[in-house]
Prior knowledge:
It is a single chain. The chain has about 425 residues and is mainly β. It contains 4 helices and 33 strands. The strands form 8 sheets. The protein has a 5-stranded antiparallel sheet with strand order 1-12-11-10-33, with no helix packed on it. β18 (about 260-265) and β19 (about 275-280) form a beta hairpin. α2 packs across α4. The longest helix has 17 residues, at about 150-165. The N and C termini lie far apart (about 45 Å). The model is unreliable at about 1-30 (pLDDT under 50).
Amino acid sequence: MRTALPTDPAVVRLLRLWFMGILLATAALLVSPAHAQLRVDMSGVGATQYPIAIADFSGDPQGMAVAEVIRADLTRSGQFRLINATGVNLSVETSINHDEWRGRGADYLAYGSITQSGGQYNISYRLVDALRQTELDGVAFTGTEKELRRISHQIADRIYEKITGVRGVFSTRLAYVVQKSDTYELQIADADGQNPQVMLRSKHSIISPAWSPDGKKLAYVSFESGKPVVYVQTLASGQRFPVANFKGNNSAPAWSPDGNQLAIALSRDGISQIYVINADGSGLRRVMRSPLIDTEPVFTPDGSSLIFTSDRGGSPQIYRVPVSGGEASRITFNGSYNISPAISPDANNLVYVTRRDGAFRIALQNMGSGAEQLMTAGPDDESPSFAPNGMQILYSSVQGGRSVLAVVSVDGRVRQTLSALDGKVREPTWGPFTN
Length: 435
């Protein structure tokens, strides 16, 4: 008989935080395309918008598709205003009339050429500054037809970085869990929700996916053995193994910055406590001893400390402790319920789930000043994760009665919703830079 899970959001979170519930499961491991892409809806624009024209890439019919992916990427960032260049035929050998493009309102112009031979595509692109009349970037790529979308994302990343000075994240990936009826799927997809693949399909819960720093592995929690167990799976091969399968509950995996260790929460001694374990499952070490529940550890970017959730002060709050152990210090002081911490790549900001007036919302706190900004309105937002450039926050949300993924820029101005057409999508985590 299957154990029924409660549906009240507050109860669900408390059960997850306290590691309650045992689900009987049998998982089938496979790597296969998912049936539906995530649909992206966007609202808002950035405080600064760069006017840019993206011409169709000349030389092959695929050039239009390449340009469309680049346009869509830059538009989703909210930081670019597209100047119409659809149908304009430019090649990398074309002499650019900077005054003409400036007259059209474009400060920047991106264009390129694409040719195909023997199933291989050669893509060359250029980016020019029409105001300064200079070339900012030019590079060539080679790939198959299946790789054209990835190459388009890489070009968009280069454009974003050359103009904003910040590395782009369009070619990164997301991991998340989709629930379809009584089936759970751990999926990965491109940052725009395209090309989803199923990494694991199970009859029961999968939670807490976490990317390795090199983007080649995922750690996650599966309930298939009758209790939560932490697995590590290699994405390319699909091979996996249980890295933490101790007595009691094993949960909340988080990778160290060098990828050699995982921080985990174990109840092997009767109450949830924080441990560090080598990525191969050896060398288990308890970080500290607490009389109350400690859970959800994450490494700081320099690897020296762990940020974690604990009720040691009487209510769930977020704390910090050296990886080597020692005294923990409290970080969050606004509100009586703060859980699920994630820290930005530059260590300047902390994001977490907070409960305010009965609603679960995403909050952003400056690590230096302690100033807090509520990023979402709730009522049911969870699992925040920073983009690898720190400019956006990915989280799961219930909107209009549907479970979706959402993205908000750190200034709160630009918002995206990524919704699955055939299931509930949750437990998101943004993958690292991989090139």
